[in-house]
Amino acid sequence: KNGGGPFTTEDLELFTIIAAQASIAIDNARMHLAMLAKQRLEFELEIAASIQRDFLPHAPPCAPGFELAGASISCDSTGGDYYDYLPHPDPDCQGFSVAVGDVSGHGIPSALLMASARALIRARAAMPGSLGEMLTGVNHLMSRDTGQSGRFMTLFWLAVDPEAGVLAYVKAGHDPAMVYNPRTDSFSDLDVKGIPLGVEACWGYEQNFRRGWQAGEVIVIGTDGIWECRDKTGAMYGKDRLRQTVAAHASLHARDIVDSVFADVAEFQGDAPRQDDLTLVVIKALRDSGDHVQKCTSPGKPTLS
Fold first, then answer.
1. 199 with 143: CB under 8 angstroms?
2. Which CATH superfamily is domain 59-285 in?
3. How confident is the model at residue 12 (pLDDT cuts 50, 70, 90)?
4. Over the stretch 117-172, which tens digit does the pLDDT of each residue have?
């Protein structure tokens, strides 16, 4: 104490008051810093979400004889689901291809891997080769990124050749595409073997084919966030309900089919929290494929007549 005298009771009370005020000021400063950090994180997440939205197609390509539509909803600000409209593997073909993928997990780590996979897929799609060859190349490069992280990506890639009347498809651990035929009121799957991307660098992917389609047929490619969606009781949406919803709205435009599925999933989910990203692409044939199928000349395609 200044002057050398002892501290009095009044001095101690004053010290207590000053210390309490200092503690409040320090807590306020800490909370302010935490609030600024939170605001910065939210701003960065908003930018990341905006960038990821720009990765998704803004409109389907011109595809005479078909309707195409897709949508994706992330569980968090960013997600690991992916879909894209790509060129047909045969550069001389006037067709198109569609890829739908799902990175394990969700959030920022999955979004980063999705962005890397998207770049690899787009780069490989710009070069000639069969879908199997393309996916084999993508997997080889992607495996370098995933390393020992345990992360992986499932993918379904479908190519449509309207002139030849051939569907080519390849799968990397993804659920098969569903095909609804309204004339027979039945579903079939487009399936082929293939492990997820990023698991085994040396894996070789093989494509499969289907010849022809009928007017009104609907091809549905989705991610498991749809059929594994749960309501507040824990019940799962399931593929049976998805098939019922697609069949009930198959006469509508592809865009309306997508919207109807998402609306039905939201109704089923109710107030339950969303646990995974949701992505769906619908391709609807507007006319029958030709009865005569010309010889396919691109690598890996079958010769049909």
1. yes
2. PPM-type phosphatase domain (3.60.40.10)
3. confident
4. 999 999 999 998 999 999 999 999 999 888 777 889 999 999 999 999 999 999 99
Burial class (CB in 10 A: 0-12, 13-18, 19+), 82: buried
Nearest to 83 by CA among 50, 117, 106, 108: 117
Task: Identify whether the C-beta of residue 192 lies closer than 8 Å to the C-beta of residue 207.
Answer: yes
Quick one: which H or E segment has residue 66? strand 66-73
Task: Give the highest mean pLDDT range of 44-48, 90-94, 270-274.
Answer: 270-274
Closest CA to 242 of 256, 222, 217: 222
Q: Where are the domains of the chain?
A: 1-55, 59-285
CB 79, CB 101: distance < 8 Å: no
What pLDDT does residue 262 have? 98
Helices (H), ranges, 152-253: 224-227, 238-248
Q: pTM here? A: 0.80
Report how far residue 59's alpha carbon sits from residue 209's, in angstroms, rounded to the nearest whole number: 27
Residues 219 and 258: their CA atoms lie apart, in Å, by 11
**DSSP β-ladder status, 153-161 and 278-285:** unpaired
3-state secondary structure at position 219: strand
194: left (phi over 0), alpha (psi -120 to 50) or beta: left
Q: Within 2-87, where are the H helices?
A: 9-55
